[in-house]
Specification:
2 copies of one chain form a homodimer. With 386 residues, chain A is mostly helical. Chain A is 56% helix and 9% strand. Chains A, B: InterPro entries: 6-hairpin_glycosidase_sf, 6hp_glycosidase-like_sf, AGE/CE, AGE_dom.
Amino acid sequence: MDFKQLSKQYKNELLENVVPFWLSQSQDHEFGGYFTCLDREGKVYDTDKFIWLQAREVWLFSMLYNKVEQKKEWLECARQGGEFLKEYGHDGNYNWYFSFTREGQPLIQPYNIFSYTFAAMAFAQLGLATGNDEYSAIAKHTYDRIIEKQDNPKGRYNKAVPGTRELKNFALPMIMCNLNLEMEHILGHEYVEQSGTKLINEVMNTFYRPELGLIVENVNADGSFSDTFDGRLLNPGHAIEAMWFIMDLAERMNKKDIIQKAHQITLQTLEQGWDKEHGGIFYFMDAKNHPPQQLEWDQKLWWVHLETLISLLKSYRLTGSQESLDWFEKVHQYTWTHFKDAQFPEWFGYLNRQGEVSLNLKGGKWKGCFHVPRGLYQCWKELEKF
Amino acid sequence: MDFKQLSKQYKNELLENVVPFWLSQSQDHEFGGYFTCLDREGKVYDTDKFIWLQAREVWLFSMLYNKVEQKKEWLECARQGGEFLKEYGHDGNYNWYFSFTREGQPLIQPYNIFSYTFAAMAFAQLGLATGNDEYSAIAKHTYDRIIEKQDNPKGRYNKAVPGTRELKNFALPMIMCNLNLEMEHILGHEYVEQSGTKLINEVMNTFYRPELGLIVENVNADGSFSDTFDGRLLNPGHAIEAMWFIMDLAERMNKKDIIQKAHQITLQTLEQGWDKEHGGIFYFMDAKNHPPQQLEWDQKLWWVHLETLISLLKSYRLTGSQESLDWFEKVHQYTWTHFKDAQFPEWFGYLNRQGEVSLNLKGGKWKGCFHVPRGLYQCWKELEKF
């Protein structure tokens, strides 16, 4: 495998195709922030704005400025989105709405904790890029809200009847592994190490079920397996993405056994999640092979494949495993063949099981300027190390 | 077309295949109520119970008892499910939960108005079947709750920020067209006529958009078109199902112009919703042909096709339109070829765009003892009239 050539491929795709697409097509020069509902050619088909994606684009352009090159247009793109978010994205108390109109009028209440996590991530990175302490303070205030809300993230919008079936969800501890590293300059080294030990334990000992060899999306409050739709739910892309967050954290904390375990879980999940008939990684599965509730279970999503590429390269670099490298080649092949649009910039997001494009949008409610460029960046940087 | 033969085909499938399946496989003889999560062969794969489906099965067996034959086992099946629902399905004040455990412990709060509408429908029909006034009273109490909640059906679980974008949703007025007729013996003739006039106006003049020739799922509070994801959303099966509710109501109220309009809308919707490439009717579409948010947009669902068959037969009987009959043949062909399981009882529910089985369950969280048997019954009875 020609790592140099591959590294260049990822870098070029990022800097010559994907980043220019978002820079030129997504910025709302009239009201601020970003359009993310962009069709195949990059034209805006809906003007609603979603906090997840607004925050993630602020983060991405700040990160590029901080880590790739101090380009003025990248900083300005991040800054104007940050200002829009700061002004309209929350209720005045750093409770982050889920979505707002083009003009910034709130549409959906702050029920979704990941609006908070991505806002914190965005302002922490924007603080670094600009040196403006106000942004770092917003990140810290938001982080505090997350900690307050972590035991009942949906708050009053939680529809579960208390006491019948209390489940813990995987997504928040998973995201916190990444967020703590993103915010280490604000949270402090000691906090990140203490919290990291707890988070690693939660992900690797509670949500990882040794009897399955897999991570489940939900467990009972006491940490046991729940033989219910929610308890049996597998999201291979989610589990694999978590493994590179864990590998980053374990590398930072110098925990070799955890790296080894994260590497193993990556391969086990991929073995389970790979569609042997049509290729690609399934979106949802049931741990007992019952029918999942999610009708889109067999679709192939862009972020699943990009996150998997990252985890495989990290697991190869950290363990030297040939199996990781073989899987990387296979997933790389599938991903570039199926998700890259040969005709127009940016990548497709949604394929059916057969690998045909099911929705030809380049951005929407959930796909924005995030997984494709972050994945390309991470792979470029990992490949450069070989 | 041999109507006699076809009528027999629908009747036999109902009475010899589908009804015996639910009677033998779904009843929970230990705790009461019904299992609905049944795999291809009818084995229980999950024991959670969903109020929508519990109520619909009470309704179906009561209806069969009232309209087909006074079979003791049908009545007993309906009655035991009704008792289970009465005991565990609501909070004591006829606020109906969304789901409960096998034993009847509530899982999900009463956030969903259709748990109420299907409970009202169930107890009204069970009251008729048993002559037990307690059941009819439950139906009436529940109906009153629906009317109280109709302007904000989700109540405190409504995540929309008040004042930014107030939308009205199509589903409730649509269901009320059917529920009022179901409950006419409880609500009274005068009420049904008065309410019917309002509902017909709402469906046919507010949600039907003449500029599109289609019904949309959401409109602005003032009745205007909303050029947003929600406002552009089309659900062809929903719109077509509504048209047979409207035809029933218009027939009952002797409104020939409304019948004619419902017939036209059925055909226009089918023309729009039919997949010219692979056959079958799409699940979701966007009125402006933008990408819809629903990843399952191109799947072919059982209920869409069964409800369409009903609407086409009613529209043929009431208008004599050859076009309705031609469409019926086409949809009948697709439906029986793709949804009927040649090997095991009951029908498949979820196909991919190509018409291949995507989930081979016979029941789940949303598919229960309802659309297949109701559709077969309705088609049998309509075909008998020719």
